[in-house]
Amino acid sequence: MTYFDWTALAVFFACWTGYAAVTDRVGTIQRQSVIAAMDEYRRRWMLALLERSNRVSDTAIIGNLMTSTGFLANTSIFILGGLVALLASPDLGRRVLAALPWAEPPGSDAAWEIRVVLLMLIFVRAFFELTWALRQFNYCSILIGGVGMGTEFTPQAEVAAKVANRAARHFNTGLRAYYFGLAALAWIIHPAALIAASLLVLRELYRREFRSAVRDALREG
Question: Could you tell me the residue range of the domain that residue 149 belongs to?
């Protein structure tokens, strides 16, 4: 680990944890995001359940959300399997990277293992977040089945909306781990690549959550 490596790692964690802390915990900023806009739409969805007895379309929507969440959770397992294979063959990995232009592969087995272990920790985090989101969507489907018709069941609909919103937030956290996992992959090439990739991911996340056309359209509704 050189000074440049430590600097790149500090920038990486500052981008990831700093962005999450600001956008998820600072209320005035969080309320401007596309996630907050979707929270309101999910609440409207659950309140609309009070006016219809046929919930087939609602269960289909929940099933679609669970399918996409489950796909990413399963993909995390496959990625972890590949990373374990990389951990077991550092010499082969470094030889492959050495053929790339401008690449500076780790010079020792320990340096290689540190980079791979970082990737493993990121995708373990993604797996736990996505599977917890999957369980919460499952809970939400049960809550939908228990919501009756009429305004007297509004508290039940509000509970279902809160569970759906929490599931969506954990899904977003897991997806964010995927983005920063791709940034961490650049560290295998060069510390400068890790810094550039971290800043690029940070920019893209901010643009999509706070400056995208989708966010503007949702807030107009």
Answer: 3-77+116-220
